[in-house]
Amino acid sequence: MSDPCIICVAITGSVPTKADNPAVPVSIAEQVESTHAAFEAGASIVHAHVRDDEGKPTSDPERFARLKEGVERHCPGMIVQLSTGGRSGAGQMRGGMLPLRPDMASLSVGSNNFPTRVYENPPDLVDWLAGEMLTHDVKPEIEAFDLSHIFMARDMWAKGRIARRPYVQFVMGVKNAMPVDRVVFDFYIATVKRLFGVDAPWCAAGIGPNQIVVNEWAVACGGHARTGLEDNVRLDKTTLAPSNAALVRRVVDLCDRYERPVANWRQARQMLGLRQPE
Q: In the chain, how many domains are there?
């Protein structure tokens, strides 16, 4: 297999804290430094959340702007993907950073259960977020927590609510949502190829100890892989991950094992149909 593998690093998220792992980057400066190390290790996409002064998740566009500026300065060419996730704000606050014109943004197109609550993505909010992404030329990454989300992405694409062929990421291992199941994983791949074309790019993320499991499945099956401290703070049951870069290097090792080159930022932009950096 020779297709380059795009590695996405989810650096912070909304849940992990320094009490979970001191390496979790919380301040903007920490996030930029951690992203730079992950970029040098092989990541070509950074999936980013921001925190307030108390370390709590926020959708503050000003903080996103500072993070985006720092990443673009220190990691030239790296794809910046900002989160519109629901833990950081409510309603249209979740898309307040989209006028910043990041390369990409996450888009959850349906609701599902999370460990202690419902992750709500009502149709009117999904439509608004998708519309903002169209307006500001931001490519969505479809966060598929359920099979229905892949079909919703296909419907939105067919109706022009998503401009370019969707990039779907399978999220597996969230408690009360889709478990890590190889038969389901294979069916997801087959469904993406059937709905979007046999050459459609896709990505996968595993949560907690399943991160490395799903990483290997994705690399072995010709997909792209997400890693990072947002989804998993450990190397193994007894060892904390020392950095986001260390988790990226695990995926690089998998790429070597399966004889897949690691995509650089130029290749990743071309494969995803993204504009070149200004």
A: 1
Q: What is the CATH number of the domain that holds 187?
A: 3.20.20.70
Please, where are the H alpha helices in the chain? 28-41, 61-74, 123-135, 147-158, 182-196, 211-220, 244-257, 265-272
Q: Is residue 63 part of a domain?
A: yes
Asked if the structure places residue 278 within a domain, the reply is no
* Helices 147-158 + 182-196 axis angle, to 10: 10
Q: Would you write out the chain's pLDDT as a tens digit for each of its 278 residues?
A: 569 999 999 999 999 999 999 999 999 999 999 999 999 999 999 999 999 999 999 999 999 999 999 999 999 999 999 999 977 778 899 999 999 999 999 999 999 999 999 999 999 999 999 999 999 999 999 999 999 999 999 999 999 999 999 999 999 999 999 999 999 999 999 999 999 999 999 999 999 999 999 999 999 999 999 999 999 999 999 999 999 999 999 999 999 999 999 999 999 999 999 998 87
